[in-house]
Write a structure and sequence with these properties.
By secondary structure, the chain is of the alpha+beta class.
Length: 433
């Protein structure tokens, strides 16, 4: 009778395990499907964001091409202006040299005019004294003969004509002097105006060139920022893509472990039943508990300590933003970083923000989690690797956007995303120093 009861007990254990296993399996499948749906949605949004980034980059490239073309035109215009300034400056120097030469002529002309003025003043005094006429009687009386008279009369006429010529030349020289002075002064003023205008134009062109330089630098900076943003989006897309397979594998591992536990429990129960029938229900030999290595103090719960050190920052607002994880610092050399639970490595790579980082997918009682271990000096696991709780995955470091040697540890219920919408406080779930 006792053997029959034990047999029923074993059968009941197997049936119950199968029922609960089926329930866990169904819940796991549903949870996995929900996670996959979320990841697909996030990947679709990321793809749209990456396309938008590409469009912005193309638009910025087109704007840069326009700015560079405008800068080329400005360079040619500035070069042409420099050439004209040089030409007009040379012309200005020639005009100044011509003015200097003319000033010498003016000096000579003034001296000549001054001499004529003296001569004309003498003539004027003579005309005033003689009434402006030469007495022909005096000429005749001074003549020796008729021929001499004619010569004297002709000489007087020549002198009078000479006076008239002097007056005419005097007026012509004065007019020429005034015209030349006015012409050169006008030409000098014109060239000076042209040079001044060219210099103003040159300054305006240089100002425009500097403005285009600033605009181009701004566009290039914007393009660089968008490129960096695109790289971050692509990085996130790769993580999301890897999460699908890793989460499914993590859940499959948990289901396999549950099945193995159920099978082991059934085998143990059967063995106990057989043993009981032979010795009247003796005690079974307890299964020895594995002893963790000293370097990896594995906790008995689902999660274990990710690193030894000092707890320095929590899941809280910090430096004007929110810190979606906890920090554990340790200045010692070669501080090991451990996997917080059994799981599958989603991604193991170098990130500009996280530095050397390892993303791991875990499945605990049908619930998926993602842990992030960042800023490591070295990584010991690769993407896709299966890890055990307490297994060393790297060494604590100070890589990426870090301000000292520490482990930045994140826990996400479900999948990871850049908005950290699934992040939860690890304290109370994962053991901390």
């Amino acid at each position: 009778m006792k053997k029959t009861l034990l047999t029923f007990a074993v059968a009941g254990t197997v049936v119950v395990s199968s029922i609960f296993g089926g329930i866990v399996n169904a819940e796991s499948i549903s949870s996995l499907q929900n996670q996959q749906d979320k990841i697909q949605k996030e990947k679709s949004e990321l793809s749209s964001d990456i396309n938008n980034a590409d469009q912005q980059i193309n638009s910025l490239n087109a704007q840069q091409a326009e700015v560079k073309e405008a800068m080329t035109r400005l360079d040619f215009a500035i070069g042409d202006t420099h050439k004209k300034i040089s030409e007009k400056t040379a012309e200005l120097e020639e005009t100044k040299a011509e003015i200097t030469r003319l000033q010498e002529e003016i000096k000579i002309t003034k001296e000549r005019i001054e001499k004529r003025n003296d001569l004309l003043r003498d003539r004027a005094r003579n005309y005033q004294e003689t009434g402006g006429m030469v007495s022909y009687i005096d000429v005749l009386m001074g003549s020796k003969n008729f021929s001499d008279f004619i010569d004297r009369a002709s000489a007087v006429a020549t002198i009078l004509q000479a006076d008239q010529d002097i007056l005419k030349q005097h007026e012509a020289d004065k007019k020429s002097l005034e015209e030349n002075q006015a012409k050169l002064e006008e030409e000098l003023a014109s060239v000076q105006t042209i040079v001044a205008d060219l210099k103003v134009m040159n300054q305006q062109l240089n100002d425009q060139r500097e403005e285009k330089d600033r605009l181009l630098a701004s566009l290039e900076e914007q393009e660089e920022e968008i490129h960096e943003h695109k790289m971050e989006l692509q990085e996130e897309s790769r993580v999301l893509a890897a999460q699908e397979a890793a989460l499914a594998q993590a859940m499959a591992l948990e289901q396999k472990q549950e099945q193995e536990k159920a099978a082991a429990a059934a085998a143990a129960a059967a063995a106990a039943a057989n043993s009981g029938s032979g010795n009247g229900g003796g005690e079974s030999t307890p299964t020895p508990t594995p002893t963790p290595t000293p370097s990896a103090p594995v906790s008995s719960g689902a999660f274990t300590l990710p690193a030894n050190g000092t707890f320095t920052s929590g899941f809280e607002p910090r430096w004007g933003s929110f810190h979606y994880g906890v920090d554990i610092a340790n200045s010692a050399a070669g501080v090991p970083i451990w996997a917080a639970a059994d799981g599958v490595v989603i991604q193991s790579y170098y990130s500009s923000s996280y530095g050397n980082v390892v993303f791991i997918a875990h499945s605990v009682n049908g619930q998926t989690y993602t842990t992030v271990s960042a800023h490591m000096e070295t990584r010991f696991v690769s993407s896709g690797a299966v890890v055990k709780k307490g297994q060393q995955i790297g060494i604590m470091g100070n890589t990426g956007d870090s301000r000292g040697k520490h482990l930045h540890f994140e826990l996400h219920r479900g999948s990871w995303n850049s908005s950290k919408s699934n992040a939860i406080n690890p304290v109370g779930i994962v053991p901390m120093p």
